[in-house]
Amino acid sequence: GAGVSQSPRYKVAKRGQDVALRCDPISGHVSLFWYQQALGQGPEFLTYFQNEAQLDKSGLPSDRFFAERPEGSVSTLKIQRTQQEDSAVYLCASSLVGQGSQPQHFGDGTRLSIL
Amino acid sequence: KNQVEQSPQSLIILEGKNCTLQCNYTVSPFSNLRWYKQDTGRGPVSLTIMTFSENTKSNGRYTATLDADTKQSSLHITASQLSDSASYICVVLRGTGTASKLTFGTGTRLQVTL
């Protein structure tokens, strides 16, 4: 597709369940980013991939959060044993290379609600 | 602390009017500053990217300014339209290369009314 695609668009899970969120970046984009956006706030950085290498995971809030991009294209963000504070919109973005002068292209996010 | 602060938090204007949104940052070392537009339920869309040496950049009815000395930026919207209703987020890139990181403001929520 022409843009960054995220699925599902909405996810409702019970506390304690595991969830997996998918991101399809723009074809040919080397860099991929995950962000968490709470209601009324700006996005907060979670993790960054360059191709299949996870170069920065300093924003992941706990070891329950895990991200992968095994073939350097599609990425999955997994949250284990979900808690209510994990409720947020999870945004994925991609860029040609790095995040220097290149704009990041965002998907429309996955809205996660933990009951 | 590396922060990006935006004002006002929200703004309501009549269609056709102009408005200016403000962004102050303390991010260091500065690499570039971006303005994004985020419609409700959608991902942010890039409007402008400005480096240290640029002090004005336009994108249609949007004009961004940057004063790197005072660490301030503004986004001016001319002849507003209903479709301009959205959150406008100021974002500063800190550092370079693989160590670089984006710091996002909390946004200004703009509502354009008839």
For the biggest sheet of chain B, the summary is: 6 strands, mixed
Helix/strand order of chain B, N-terminal first:
EEEEEEEEEEE
% residues in beta strands of chain B: over 45%
Radius of gyration of chain B: 14 Å
Q: Give a quick account of the main beta sheet of chain A: strands, pairing sense, barrel closure.
A: 7 strands, mixed
Distance between the amino and carboxyl termini of chain B: 41 Å
Q: Average pLDDT value of chain A?
A: 94
Low-confidence stretches of chain A: none
Number of DSSP strand runs of chain A = 11
Q: What is the quaternary state of this protein? A: heterodimer
First-to-last CA distance of chain A: 33 Å
Radius of gyration based on Cα positions of chain A: 13 Å
Strand content of chain A: over 45%
According to DSSP, the number of beta strands of chain B is 11
Query: Largest interface: which pair?
Result: A-B, 23 and 25 residues
Explain what this protein looks like in three dimensions.
The complex is a heterodimer of chains A (115) and B (114). Helix content of chain A is 0%, strand content 48%. Helix content of chain B is 0%, strand content 59%. In chain B, the strands form 2 sheets. In chain B, strands 2, 4, 5, 9, 10 and 11 form a 6-stranded mixed beta sheet that branches. A 5-stranded antiparallel beta sheet of chain B has the order 1-3-8-7-6, with no helix packed on it. In chain B, β9 and β10 form a beta hairpin. Chain B is globular and about 45 Å long. The termini of chain B are far apart. At the A-B interface, β5 and β10 of A face β4, β5, β9 and β10 of B.
Strand-helix topology:
The complex is a heterodimer of chains A (115) and B (114).
Chain A (H helix, E strand, L loop, with lengths): L4 E3 L2 E4 L5 E6 L6 E7 L6 E7 L2 E4 L8 E4 L6 E5 L8 E8 L9 E2 L3 E5 L1
Parallel strand pairs in A: 2-11
Antiparallel strand pairs in A: 1-3, 3-8, 4-5, 4-9, 5-6, 7-8, 9-10, 9-11
Chain B lengths: L3 E4 L2 E5 L4 E7 L4 E9 L6 E7 L4 E4 L2 E6 L4 E6 L8 E9 L6 E4 L3 E6 L1
